[in-house]
Write a structure and sequence with these properties.
Distance between the termini of chain A: 33 Å
CATH superfamily of the largest domain in chain A: Butyryl-CoA Dehydrogenase, subunit A, domain 3
Cofactor (chains A, B, C, D): FAD
CATH topology of the largest domain in chain A: Butyryl-CoA Dehydrogenase, subunit A, domain 3
Subunit structure (chains A, B, C, D): Homodimer.
Largest interface: A-B, 51 and 51 residues
Number of helices of chain A: 12
CATH architecture of the largest domain in chain A: Up-down Bundle
Organism (chains A, B, C, D): Sphaerisporangium melleum
Keywords (chains A, B, C, D): FAD, Flavoprotein, Oxidoreductase
InterPro entries (chains A, B, C, D): Acyl-CoA_dehydrogenase, Acyl-CoA_Oxase/DH_mid-dom, Acyl-CoA_Oxase/DH_mid-dom_sf, AcylCo_DH-like_C, AcylCo_DH/oxidase_C, AcylCoA_DH/ox_N, AcylCoA_DH/ox_N_sf, AcylCoA_DH/oxidase_NM_dom_sf
Oligomer: homotetramer
Chain lengths: 403, 403, 403, 403
Amino acid sequence: MDFAYDGTTEELRKRLLEFMDECVYPAEEAFEWQAAESGWTAPPMLADLQAEARGRGLWNLFLPGEYGAGLTNLQYAPLAEIMGRSPRIAPPATNCAAPDTGNMELLATFGSAWQRDRWLRPLLDGEIRSAFAMTEPEVASSDATNIATSIVRDGDEYVINGRKWFASGAMNPRCAIFIVMGKTAQEGPEHRRQSMVLVPRDTPGVTVERGMHVFGYTDGDHGGHAEVRFEDVRVPVDHLVGEEGGGFAIAQARLGPGRIHHCMRLIGMAERAIELMCRRALARVAFGKQVAQQGVVQDWIAESRVKVEQLRLLVLKTAWLMDTVGNRGAHTEIQAIKIATPRDVEWILDKAIQVHGAGGVSQDFPLAGLWAAARTLRLADGPDEVHKRSLARRELKKYLTVE
Amino acid sequence: MDFAYDGTTEELRKRLLEFMDECVYPAEEAFEWQAAESGWTAPPMLADLQAEARGRGLWNLFLPGEYGAGLTNLQYAPLAEIMGRSPRIAPPATNCAAPDTGNMELLATFGSAWQRDRWLRPLLDGEIRSAFAMTEPEVASSDATNIATSIVRDGDEYVINGRKWFASGAMNPRCAIFIVMGKTAQEGPEHRRQSMVLVPRDTPGVTVERGMHVFGYTDGDHGGHAEVRFEDVRVPVDHLVGEEGGGFAIAQARLGPGRIHHCMRLIGMAERAIELMCRRALARVAFGKQVAQQGVVQDWIAESRVKVEQLRLLVLKTAWLMDTVGNRGAHTEIQAIKIATPRDVEWILDKAIQVHGAGGVSQDFPLAGLWAAARTLRLADGPDEVHKRSLARRELKKYLTVE
Amino acid sequence: MDFAYDGTTEELRKRLLEFMDECVYPAEEAFEWQAAESGWTAPPMLADLQAEARGRGLWNLFLPGEYGAGLTNLQYAPLAEIMGRSPRIAPPATNCAAPDTGNMELLATFGSAWQRDRWLRPLLDGEIRSAFAMTEPEVASSDATNIATSIVRDGDEYVINGRKWFASGAMNPRCAIFIVMGKTAQEGPEHRRQSMVLVPRDTPGVTVERGMHVFGYTDGDHGGHAEVRFEDVRVPVDHLVGEEGGGFAIAQARLGPGRIHHCMRLIGMAERAIELMCRRALARVAFGKQVAQQGVVQDWIAESRVKVEQLRLLVLKTAWLMDTVGNRGAHTEIQAIKIATPRDVEWILDKAIQVHGAGGVSQDFPLAGLWAAARTLRLADGPDEVHKRSLARRELKKYLTVE
Amino acid sequence: MDFAYDGTTEELRKRLLEFMDECVYPAEEAFEWQAAESGWTAPPMLADLQAEARGRGLWNLFLPGEYGAGLTNLQYAPLAEIMGRSPRIAPPATNCAAPDTGNMELLATFGSAWQRDRWLRPLLDGEIRSAFAMTEPEVASSDATNIATSIVRDGDEYVINGRKWFASGAMNPRCAIFIVMGKTAQEGPEHRRQSMVLVPRDTPGVTVERGMHVFGYTDGDHGGHAEVRFEDVRVPVDHLVGEEGGGFAIAQARLGPGRIHHCMRLIGMAERAIELMCRRALARVAFGKQVAQQGVVQDWIAESRVKVEQLRLLVLKTAWLMDTVGNRGAHTEIQAIKIATPRDVEWILDKAIQVHGAGGVSQDFPLAGLWAAARTLRLADGPDEVHKRSLARRELKKYLTVE
């Protein structure tokens, strides 16, 4: 047992920290101004930051294997954490932003040769963006068997009909490809009825209807969260990802890394919040003493530190398990970090906001926006309650087999 | 001891509930659409709703005494709760919306005859709106002695210099009058250095700079929350409210009713959330059963009901105390409801959001917006921590005198 | 709506507060010493306190109707609260201690004339004590249909077989009568299979086996919490309470008042805890300042006050409902106070303990013992979770009928 | 970074798990019976268990260096966790029980040659037991500068006067030696006024007055928690541990490992609680379904698992830090585990109790006793609040130096 990062990780951390200090933090204020003017696309300055990051060897760090930087999850985790300190800039600047990360990993793992050539390559180069269209407005989508969008084979084509929402990034015109989950069978085993198809944005019958808000935020610089209508949308059968009936399994495979990436970044968000909370508490005076000297504020700071240390270790161990025993073997831990991280980071952000007073809820600090992101992750990729139920059942099973 | 509402209250509750059913709830969807187009002003449909409410005798219900409906706090409380069920429409429709309510009460109590004639009358008629400019971006404003805006007498005028933010309603061009808190003395007893002056919006030197966001919301239909700069702003000395050095006392007097009104409406918001949570849980199926049958969801519903019942009783008792022993005598209870209500209602809203899944954080349900309002009230009008500190000291004093 | 106590209540409060100051608090230390020597019976000094209380007209205050003091629940509530400040002495001294209170009310309501004459009269006079034998070690007794003890009619007798535990008071040799819940039918409607019979302690086949501990406490002065075995125990058929199959309904009727009495006393326990917490915090110094000046301790004191005020109001309203619409009409509120009171008072006691340091968990302060009592009430008379489930279903039903 | 235990640890874990299965768990019931009869001493069966453990090479595992098993903290941690599953038997059976562990480490580190020969040797052999007398009833002892016991040099002797309580183990007649913290100077630097002396139990002037209770438990098998009076107690000057004025530093050094040992065992207690909770939930039926199928119970089980995984990792990392950068370098982490572990394990025990119903608070399951131990650790060795204050200050300092 050893709690020190390896040499590769330390070297990349150093390089990434320099990039943050030299390029990312100094860009934050201007990014906000540009974002306010950019509608559903990324601020123009992002392109320069991407070039800079790529030049520094900070590109596609999330992707294991031949197509990406080839890091293990355990090596990537502390880097994703650092990116999470400025989560609207650092991840896209390094081409490590959701949902593209998950989509690239999906294409690298399950995509056919031509799919990889046609869609993965430009994604790896940051030329296009992508969306993952799974959640539907009409059903409780946390139960994937509820998915109602139909994908019906008709000759050499699949015909898609349905309605999706919260397809993150899809409002962005540069978002060229949608991965759509739907039902190819109405019968058979419940988890073998779903399939995934690639649907280019410009396919007839695709209508990007509107951007969903998240606590008042549109997340426009990120491409928003779109509601999309699919009406008699036709794609050739070679647009199927993997095999027919494999949609559920692919979704599960995609969500494992996706969840841990979110959690890594959340920890960086929490560290940012603690820093802001401390600085503000030191800078303000109320009722005759520094806010930092208030016992209750000290209590929050201490609790925040204790929570973050625990979360980071659990995320790192989960990454190590994914590397050593595989995503399936790390299933319980992935659920555990998905339960613990968003809600604890939400708590920390709430306290940082409170220390900032009215400023904390406003656009003058990143805290309220980060809070909305953390809160949303308590229900995105499956609400906490679904993960807890599943984790509990696994725990209970230990004692069923024993007796 | 008797827990039944009196006849006047019951009659008004009935009338108000009818107004909600017949006019307010049916208007909610269109209100959103209009609000999205109305910038910093109220949607046009509000005028009709106001006329309707006034015609039904539902006007200025909040204001005790000769200028308003003459209800006691105990009588108004259950009405404010009902309004809180649709808090963006019902309060302004009945001319019972903050900050105008507090400003009207302030003018009715402390304003001179001409001030009442010039500003109170059009406010009572809903012709203009008003803002209360107290919080400052540069200092911890929860400690009123930190207020830095200067109000210096120069002959027959006061000269005002300073910067305020979160002046709710002030982005609205119809917001004609600002009540500004500042320092008229740099020496003397700490709580006698502040004064309040009336500053008409169009006075030279007044610059309404920008609207502050609250978790991504601009609250434009409400007139937003403005940052305002005062540079060598001059008003005649008769624009002083009350006496020089009386600002702190007036602010305290204003905040008592203001806080209880917020709490009353929050309870209505919580009831709305419980209703939405139940309806959604009954309407959705996941993992083979109704969401309403999930034990954890039932737990949330039960907790929500238990919390709301307790909050309502504490608010009602506080109203009764304000009526019977005065705002000062109800000081501890006012602090208690200010502490308990926003955070408990925030909790309920969070659970209602979770039951709604992704929809819960979006613009398709009122929950995320209500949540932002409840969260903000944990720091508006003084953060919880300040109230708790004060309440604890009062409790401790009981035992100091005994020993 | 009126939040003031009526004249009768105020007069009795005054009289009871004097009794507490003059007789109960001064007796506490000696009571502990005697209790340590008294095994399973009350300390000898209790008899004198009972005589004193009775002489002051403070006797059987809990019992409405002709047999008791004739107070309403609303009038009794604040008196029970006061008793709860010294819960091991004041309730038995005034013959208002559980489980005798519930048993007396049960006999007064459902007992036959001879049952009342034989058992109620000596209970009203404090000559004997009684036990309620419902919970069983072998089944989840929160679901009354699980009760397995059999009561089989055989000619003019009922034959009882089964095992009960946590029969409070039953270790005391002066506990002369057990009210035993069992099954008289194995078929028919689920809630009509249970009956209650009176079983005198000295009936052959009754074995009081041992006292159950509660977090290390035996509660010997209270008669402990007994495990009792019933083997072919025979009682005449006139020992049936009410009718055959009426056991469940009687249990429900008994538990309503029982639960509210517990909650009233818990509030008194909480007030005692707040007083002790404040006094200790004022008396100790750590790290250069009074513990009472620590922000976190002030936070606890404030939260405690806010919680107690809310709980008291909810309990009082519930009492008022029981008086005005009956126990059934107050069902939701009875559940609400049963959920909220033990856990909130437990929280307050926990904080009072923490302020006392090591002393807090010891026998030198009443806090740890009170804590154990509050904790146990989270599962006695049905665990919180059962009440929450039931309360949630009732809430959900509102929306089922509407739609 | 590597999360796997090393070979030594794995081998010892295996051996210890066998000892638990073969000797400890089977002895638990009889241990309770013997403990009930053993007053302030360990049950007689403990001697056999000690012989067995020693024979299996499971002895003094806690002690690094030449005198003990020579394990690192990181190697000992998972073993202490296993012992914590049966915390009243396994630690004393392996001579790894507090407070002897801390006292042995103290003597090994700071004791003179004769002190080690006279007291450490028999402790290592389990022939005697020892007590640590630090906490005083009259002062807030969490602030060590409050310690009032005086240690005055008089020629070749120290004269000790004072009163201590919660000296764990000291009621046991076999507890032969007390390590007493007191003040040797009334002036000079605040943390250089304290010293520690060894006081044999039979020294004239030592009076072991009474055993303090912990939530009704006497912990007699453990030697209880004594209040001890020191009146003109005289010991030769060679009974001083370390140097005069070194008491505070020694106490700090002692508390580091002591705290981590407690936390390791607490994690084992939590694992035991989860097992009991799952087994009970699977074994009982209420309202027509297994308790294990109740959503709320599943929620508790999941939360328990998530909490335990996080706690274990933080404890292990802290052990690793103590091994690699020393106790001082691990200061923040030691505080973090001291804050997080007792309260989270308390939470888990509370839920396990709730699932057990009335049985959970009784002597029939270990849960209530474990709960009392966990609760007490929230204030023993310094209350949480002191650790949080200190941890927060350290966090804040990061930003003081930066700016």
